[in-house]
Amino acid sequence: MKYDFEHLDEPINYAVLAGVIRDSIEDIATPTAVRDYLLDHEGELLTVRHAKALTALIGHDVRIRKAYGMTKIEWSQPTKAPREGGVEKFSMLLAYSEKNVVIPGPKWFVEYCARELSAARTRNEQRRVILEGKVGAGSTVIDRMVVAIRAYRAACDEIKSALDCNDDDEDYSKNPDDCTINRLFILEDK
């Protein structure tokens, strides 16, 4: 995964990085409410009535999507995480069938909806540990990441400066291998 920290407008510091992590904490209340509602209706045929009730319950438009031999409940909700563009889409797989879908029981949600439920709890706990945790002699994980990102930015600037051999023409470099070096070391945008 390539992170594009060198293009952030503001200097990287503890507050900026902690804010990115804090904004990535996932809402698990909504998926849990969806699951709990569905468990209250376990064994019933899934209908539009359930989607309407879920829409009223969670305050986001819920729809039933049947495609490719699967049935899912889907909804979107606002998020603070910048990587999501302000909206996060959720779906919960309810069946490997498109016809006469019966709302599954608890075991199904444990096995097939972990991303929205137990795995989200785990990711949030890991984020909280990073936000609160100390590593080694008093430095936090975030402090270490800030130092590494600053070093990464400085190294990118130094490499780009070393590759730029021509001060007269910004569109032309006298280094015949600058593109190859950029590609090999992931310095140019992809």
In terms of topology, how is this protein built?
Blueprint: H1 14-23, H2 29-40, H3 48-58, E1 62-67, E2 70-78, E3 87-95, H4 106-112, H5 118-132, E4 134-135, E5 139-140, H6 141-163, H7 178-184
Antiparallel strand pairs: 1-2, 2-3, 4-5
Describe the structure.
The chain is an alpha+beta fold. The chain has two domains: 1-25 and 135-190; 29-116, no CATH class. Helix content is 45%, strand content 15%. The strands form two sheets. A three-stranded antiparallel β-sheet has the order 1-2-3. Helix 2 (29-40) runs antiparallel to helix 3. The termini are close together.
Count every beta strand, where a strand is a DSSP E run of 2 or more residues: 5
Task: Note the main sheet.
Answer: 3 strands, antiparallel
Strand content: 5-15%
Count of separate structural domains? 2
Low-confidence stretches: none
| Strand arrangement in the largest pleated sheet | 1-2-3
What is the CA-CA span between the terminal residues?
12 Å
